[in-house]
């Protein structure tokens, strides 16, 4: 129904409303001026000026002007003036002096006349100062001087200031005023005490008058100040009066007021103010220029009264002046006292009130249409309908259409006036809408809504409201006096169409609007109260929801103390994501109420929280001197704000007239105190200030108190720290601590110094010292280390101090001890020599001081490297208190043998030493020199460590060996006999953090090497590289450098060739080139020709060759070399090779009978294995640790290894019977192993072979071997196998056993099992063959024909075997965090670099290298 009604309204009402709007006309209205000039207008001749006058009214008003109360016509002024159209504004193009006057604008139509205020139109001017020559004023320094300035005529009043004029350029610079150089309010300049610098090098002081309206200034003649004395000192002058504001001064309420007092004197007086209304300064009353000027902003009636300015000084009486401030007021409109426009209907009445206040009380004048009330001829006056009840009230009754008029009211007194222009309009008209209802008004529920309906019409229309077709009668709906409809607490059901009807005797009118009600906004998360420390951050959070239709308009903002926080406040930021408010670096004034406001432009919700910022306290206030008498002062104060952290205590500080810029601690007072008494020094002027302390910190200092001056008196103490300085032979040198001026107590301060030789009755010397800063006196004594009685006393104008005089014994200067003081018993303890320390012994007679020539202080041991004394000379002082006897106590013995150990010596160095006797300032001749050699220790740091080449994953380093200044062995033998090599370590650097320490492997064992390559690094990363020199005693002091590896770039692959190709192996060799273009990590990729998947060898870091084994017989392979730097990988050209032998696929068909025999053999082995398993199952055995090496290798290793750590139970030799039994045991275990694994193994291999070809589906060797065979073999055959063998061995294995066993075993075992392996496991991972075989062949001991595997370094073993044992190993190309370095401490000490780094020239049938070169000479390094 509501929708139907809305459609009806849209169709029926809108055309009617449009028709009414088209026929509306504005009612007549009297004129009213709303733009007019200021009261005072200043103009400059021939510069355009504008007098504005704009009004409104119906019909449009016309304008005229008066000047000096006479009609003024702009057309009769030589076209210099123009009256603008549609306004009353006059533009004067070239005003003349004759144009001055009092102007007034009038706007009129048939309903009345509106007038402006009176405008004082004056010509601006500034006359020049009269001409005069510069004059010189002679002044005694310390006295005051006044420079007079009589300002010239100026309209408006000129601004007066003082400047220094340069006679050469006539340029001027303003004088900075302070409490010594100041200016009174009439323009005179005062220097309260003249100083030498006031001469200004003869430049004159000039007075400048400036007129801003004229944009002009003018200067007076100059004053040159000539101080009469150039001694640099000034007279002390008591404070005296120079100038002050007149005794009585008037001030106007609301305006500012300045009063000032100037006193002369030296030191510069500080001015203070008193007033019964309260302390000065305060919020509105501030002091400047050292207290001389009191400024009161926005003067109030309470500011009236007497003000006293005063100054005090230690050398004069108090000076003061009293100033009486009289406060008056210009007229001002009282509350509801300013009359306003009134519109009434016919027959009604109108009352105008004009009420103004002021001091004195203003006079009220009424005007009608610009004519004084007594002269007005208006019709309402003639027929008696205008009633003037009093000066403030005019009432008109029984109004008629012709009664419209404009009235004026003027209230004035001596200090100014206020003026009001207003009208009465009498109307008779039908209702018209001024502001109708909003056509579509959106509101939020639970809010109060005003639907506007403001109309005009006379008589006043009666307003009726309808909701739909139903009249609104009351309740939550209330019609306001102006016609608006107030709906309280709107609900959703209030939505709909609302119609306003206005009706009077002349007719009616209607208007309508639609109200849409949305759900209210709600706050879901309110901010919480916070308490923080100043300087920290505070964060408030807030969130809310609103009506779905208004979500897009939802906005969150924050208020602080009801004022919105804007983006201009950089410390307070709002996060648009969660609407949180963050206050960075909080300060105490951030404390307050913070309000979160969530609005959708229809309504808003608020939630507030309190932020409490704990900060340092505010400084104490009102610090005053309550009493200052008898060298005691009582100070009072008022606490300042504590900023949310209670005050703990107050600190009192003082400064004095002696040091005005230095504040000194005086005392502390507890938090509840507001007064304290302090003891003072005589003859000093003090001022005091306080600081407050809480747990957050210390406040700023308070303002200082008044000056407290004490009376002069005798000094209360003498100079302290009287002492002698014996550094000058033949003189008695006396020093003391000077007494600062605060301790002088009066004028003419001096020191009185008395000197007499000890034992003499007569005083040898009396010296008076007048310079209080002097702290040293030298008396010519012509003797050595002789005692004197010395005293010093302070004195001033009141004579000597009151302190007790205590003489002190002081010795004259010392000199060098005589020859008898030389020590001849100085020796070194050779048995106690260490690598960096040596112990010495010597004898000394404590009674032998005849030629000491001073006070015995101890001994001095001097030592140095032999032959290098000038650059290695060092000294150790042994003071008397540190002397240690060699044999127990020193009692009852005059001659004692002492001992001392010198430390921090260089190891393995020839040293020399000597000893001297010391007095306070000199040493005796040295003892005979003793020589000794320190023991060898760890070396010092290597010298000049730096990179030669920095690549992306390696660096080349070079260095110089550690320095040994003077070694007991020749320098050429140091490298081999002292140094044992070098260790290199490195760690990553990221900011201030260091990564885990890693070490280069292998380290450097050749001490003659001074260059190496550190590889395996990551590109574009910062490293810290360490190097230690190493001796038999361990590592020495480290040296380190920081480098950043190069960025990863494209690399070239070195040239390579393939050799030593046999049935299962080939060797790939390349040229090792250290260049940024080559990666130092290399590996081989190979695959069977015709297949797609590449296999990868182990990665190589230091060798220039890689051997690849476990290949298939008679098979073609594609081979290529790849290099990587950790970031990028480059691969070389493909080369095709073919292994020797017959391919397994063909061999199987041609040897079918052999294959049948092999199957039968396997079945027999399975049966044997089953029987062995059954026997072992009869008893439980613990689970064994996994071991990945095949059984064959274990037998060979134990049979041939010469360095085994195993212990054997008996001494029997290994004869042939034993060898047979040993091999049979091995074969039994092998058969048992084959039986347990054959079924599963062959089933899976058969399935792989039959399913889409075996070659393509063959998994990598490591996966087949490690995952499927190692676990099962190791768990059953690892330690159990060796346990049985260990019981039968002993540790005496001779060469007969080794030779016999090696020959028998190799012939019987290798030939038979290798053939079986080739035929049965051609495509499978051989659990009995591992890269460890090749490793043993490579590491075969060439001299002893024995294997030496146990003592080899981890890195010496082949790479494949190395990584096969590491379960965490992944190929280098798949790992970005590649790290290859093992710990230095964990590697064995016995190793040979040649095994690692030299490529073998020959290989055996299995592809293992054979060395046919003799071993290098010991000590020679093959490190690259």
Automatic annotation (TrEMBL):
The keyword Transmembrane applies. Residues 1203-1230, 1243-1274, 1299-1321, 1328-1360, 1374-1388, 1395-1415 have a biased composition (Basic and acidic residues). The chain crosses the membrane at residues 1152-1176. Residues 1-19 form the signal peptide. One of its GO terms (cellular component) is axon. It comes from Mytilus coruscus. Residues 619-712, 718-815, 941-1049 form the Fibronectin type-III domain. SUPFAM superfamilies: Fibronectin type III (SSF49265), Immunoglobulin (SSF48726). Residues 31-120, 130-220, 239-324, 331-413, 431-505, 521-612 form the Ig-like domain. One of its GO terms (molecular function) is cell-cell adhesion mediator activity. Residues 1179-1274, 1299-1424 are annotated as: Disordered. Residues 1231-1242 have a biased composition (Acidic residues). This is NRCAM. CDD domains: FN3. Keywords: Disulfide bond, Immunoglobulin domain, Membrane, Repeat, Signal, Transmembrane, Transmembrane helix. Pfam families: fn3, I-set, Ig_3. The keyword NAD does not apply. It comes from the Eukaryota. SMART domains: FN3, IG, IGc2. One of its GO terms (biological process) is brain development.
């Amino acid at each position: 129904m509501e929708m139907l009604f809305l459609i009806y309204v849209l169709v029926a009402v809108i055309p009617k409303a449009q028709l009414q709007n088209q026929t509306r006309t504005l009612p007549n209205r009297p004129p009213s001026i709303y733009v007019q000039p200021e009261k005072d207008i200043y103009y400059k001749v021939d510069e355009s000026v504008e007098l504005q006058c704009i009004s409104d009214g119906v019909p449009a008003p016309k304008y005229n002007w008066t000047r000096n109360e006479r009609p003024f016509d702009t057309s009769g002024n030589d076209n210099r003036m123009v009256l603008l159209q549609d306004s009353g504004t006059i533009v004067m193009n070239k005003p003349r002096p004759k144009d001055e006057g009092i102007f007034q604008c009038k706007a009129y139509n048939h309903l009345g006349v509106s007038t402006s205020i009176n405008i004082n139109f004056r010509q601006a001017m500034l006359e020049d100062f009269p001409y005069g020559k510069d004059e010189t004023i002679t002044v005694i320094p310390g006295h005051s001087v006044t420079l007079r300035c009589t300002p010239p005529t100026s309209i408006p009043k000129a601004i007066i200031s003082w400047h220094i004029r340069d006679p050469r350029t006539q340029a001027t610079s303003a004088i900075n005023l302070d409490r010594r150089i100041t200016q009174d309010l009439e323009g005179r300049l005062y220097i309260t005490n003249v100083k030498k610098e006031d001469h200004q090098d003869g430049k004159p002081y000039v007075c400048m008058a400036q007129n801003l309206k004229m944009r002009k200034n003018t200067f007076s003649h100059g004053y040159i100040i000539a101080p009469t004395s150039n001694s640099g000192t000034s007279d002390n002058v008591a404070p005296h009066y120079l100038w002050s504001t007149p005794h009585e001064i008037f001030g106007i309420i609301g305006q500012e007021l300045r009063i000032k007092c100037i006193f002369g004197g030296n030191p510069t007086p500080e001015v203070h103010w008193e007033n019964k209304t309260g302390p000065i300064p305060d919020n509105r009353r501030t002091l400047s220029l050292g207290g001389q000027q009191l400024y009161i902003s926005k003067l109030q009636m309470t500011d009236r009264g007497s003000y006293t300015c005063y100054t005090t000084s230690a050398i004069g009486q108090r000076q003061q002046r009293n100033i009486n401030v009289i406060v008056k007021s210009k007229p001002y409109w009282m509350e509801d006292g300013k009359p306003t426009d009134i519109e009434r209907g016919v027959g009604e009445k109108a009352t105008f009130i004009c009420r103004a206040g002021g001091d004195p009380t203003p006079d009220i004048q009424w005007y009608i249409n610009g004519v004084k009330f007594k002269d007005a001829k208006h019709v309402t006056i003639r027929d008696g309908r205008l009633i003037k009840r009093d000066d403030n009230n005019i009432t008109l009754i029984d109004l008629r259409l012709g009664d419209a008029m404009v009235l004026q009211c003027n209230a004035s007194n001596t200090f100014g006036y206020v003026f009001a222009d207003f009208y009465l309009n009498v109307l008779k008209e039908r209702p018209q809408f001024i502001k109708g209802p909003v056509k579509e008004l959106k509101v939020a529920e639970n809010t109060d809504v005003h639907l506007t309906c403001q109309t005009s019409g006379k008589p006043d229309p009666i307003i009726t409201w309808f909701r739909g077709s139903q009249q609104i009668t009351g309740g939550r709906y209330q019609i306001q006096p102006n016609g608006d409809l107030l709906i309280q607490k709107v609900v959703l059901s209030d939505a709909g169409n609302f119609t306003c009807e206005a009706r009077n005797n002349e007719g009616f009118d209607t208007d309508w609007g639609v109200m849409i009600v949305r759900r209210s906004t709600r706050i879901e998360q309110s901010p919480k109260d916070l308490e923080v420390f100043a300087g920290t951050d505070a964060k408030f959070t807030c969130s809310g929801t609103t009506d779905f239709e208004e979500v897009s308009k939802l906005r969150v903002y924050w208020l602080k103390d009801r004022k919105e926080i804007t983006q201009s406040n950089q410390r307070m930021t709002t996060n648009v994501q969660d609407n949180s408010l963050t206050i960075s670096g909080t300060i105490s004034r951030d404390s307050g109420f913070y309000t979160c406001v969530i609005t959708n432009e229809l309504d808003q919700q608020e939630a507030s929280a309190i932020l409490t910022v704990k900060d340092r306290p505010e400084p104490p206030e009102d610090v005053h001197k309550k009493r200052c008498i008898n060298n005691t002062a009582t100070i009072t104060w008022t606490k300042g704000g504590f900023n949310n952290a209670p005050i703990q205590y107050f600190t009192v500080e003082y400064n004095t007239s002696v040091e005005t810029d230095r504040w000194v601690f005086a005392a502390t007072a507890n938090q509840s105190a507001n007064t304290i008494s302090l003891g003072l020094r005589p003859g000093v002027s003090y001022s005091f200030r306080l600081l407050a302390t809480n747990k957050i910190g210390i406040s700023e200092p308070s303002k200082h108190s008044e000056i407290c001056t004490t009376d002069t008196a005798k000094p209360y103490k003498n100079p302290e720290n009287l002492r002698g300085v014996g550094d000058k032979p033949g003189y008695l040198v006396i020093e003391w601590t000077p007494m600062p001026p605060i301790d002088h107590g009066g004028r003419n301060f001096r020191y009185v110094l008395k000197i007499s030789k000890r034992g003499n009755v007569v005083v040898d010397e009396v010296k008076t010292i007048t310079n209080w800063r002097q702290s040293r006196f030298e008396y010519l004594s012509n003797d050595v280390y002789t005692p004197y009685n010395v005293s010093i006393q302070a004195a001033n104008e009141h004579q000597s101090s009151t302190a007790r005089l205590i003489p002190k014994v002081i010795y004259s200067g010392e000199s060098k001890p005589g020859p008898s003081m030389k020590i001849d018993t100085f020796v070194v303890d050779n048995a106690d020599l260490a690598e960096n320390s040596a112990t010495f012994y010597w004898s000394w007679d404590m009674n032998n001081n005849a030629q000491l020539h001073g006070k015995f202080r101890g001994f001095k041991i001097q030592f140095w490297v032999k032959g290098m004394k000038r650059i290695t000379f060092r000294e150790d002082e042994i003071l008397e208190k540190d002397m240690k006897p060699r044999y127990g106590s020193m009692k009852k013995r005059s001659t004692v043998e002492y001992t001392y150990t010198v430390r921090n010596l260089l190891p393995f160095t020839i040293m020399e030493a000597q000893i001297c006797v010391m007095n306070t300032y000199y040493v005796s001749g040295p003892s005979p020199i003793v020589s000794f050699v320190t023991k060898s220790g760890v070396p010092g740091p290597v010298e000049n460590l730096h990179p030669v080449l920095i690549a992306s994953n390696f660096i080349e380093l070079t260095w110089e060996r550690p320095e040994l200044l003077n070694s007991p062995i020749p320098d050429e033998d140091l490298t081999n006999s002292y140094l044992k090599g070098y260790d290199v370590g490195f760690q990553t650097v990221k900011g201030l953090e260091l990564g885990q320490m890693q070490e280069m492997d292998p380290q450097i064992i050749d001490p003659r090497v001074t260059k190496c390559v550190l590889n395996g690094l990551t590109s574009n990363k910062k490293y810290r590289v360490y190097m230690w020199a190493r001796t038999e005693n361990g590592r020495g002091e480290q040296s380190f450098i920081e480098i950043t590896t190069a960025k990863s770039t494209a690399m070239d692959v070195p040239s390579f060739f393939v050799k030593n190709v046999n049935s299962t192996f080939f060797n790939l060799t390349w040229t090792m080139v250290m260049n940024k273009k080559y990666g130092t990590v290399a590996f081989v990729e190979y695959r069977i020709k015709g297949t797609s998947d590449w296999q990868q060898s182990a990665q190589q870091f230091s060798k220039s060759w890689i051997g690849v084994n476990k290949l298939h017989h008679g098979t073609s392979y594609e081979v290529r070399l790849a290099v990587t730097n950790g970031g990028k990988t480059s691969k070389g050209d493909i080369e095709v090779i073919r292994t020797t032998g017959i391919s397994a696929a063909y061999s199987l068909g041609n040897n079918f009978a052999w294959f049948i025999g092999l199957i039968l053999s396997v079945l027999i082995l399975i049966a044997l294995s089953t029987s062995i398993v059954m026997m072992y199952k009869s008893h439980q055995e613990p689970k064994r640790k996994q071991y990945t090496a095949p059984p064959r290798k274990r037998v060979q290793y134990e049979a041939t290894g010469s360095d085994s750590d195993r212990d054997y139970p008996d001494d029997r030799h290994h004869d042939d019977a034993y060898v047979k039994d040993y091999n049979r045991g091995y074969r039994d275990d092998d058969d048992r192993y084959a039986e347990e694994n054959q079924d599963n193994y062959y089933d899976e291999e058969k399935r792989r072979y039959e399913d889409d070809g075996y070659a393509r589906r063959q998994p990598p060797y490591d996966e087949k071997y490690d995952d499927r065979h190692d676990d099962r073999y190791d768990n059953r055959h690892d330690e159990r196998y060796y346990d049985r063998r260990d019981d039968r061995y002993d540790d005496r294995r001779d060469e007969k056993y080794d030779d016999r066993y090696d020959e028998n075993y190799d012939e019987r075992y290798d030939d038979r099992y290798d053939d079986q392996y080739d035929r049965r496991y051609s495509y499978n991972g051989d659990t009995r063959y591992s890269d460890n075989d090749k490793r043993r062949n490579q590491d075969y001991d060439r001299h002893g024909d024995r294997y030496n595997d146990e003592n080899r370094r981890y890195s010496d073993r082949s790479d494949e075997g190395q990584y096969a044992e590491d379960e965490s190993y992944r190929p280098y190309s798949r790992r970005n965090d590649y790290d290859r370095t093992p710990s230095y401490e964990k590697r064995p000490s016995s190793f040979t670099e040649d095994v690692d780094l030299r490529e073998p020239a020959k290989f055996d049938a299995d592809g293992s290298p054979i060395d046919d070169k003799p071993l290098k000479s010991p000590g020679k390094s093959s490190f690259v």
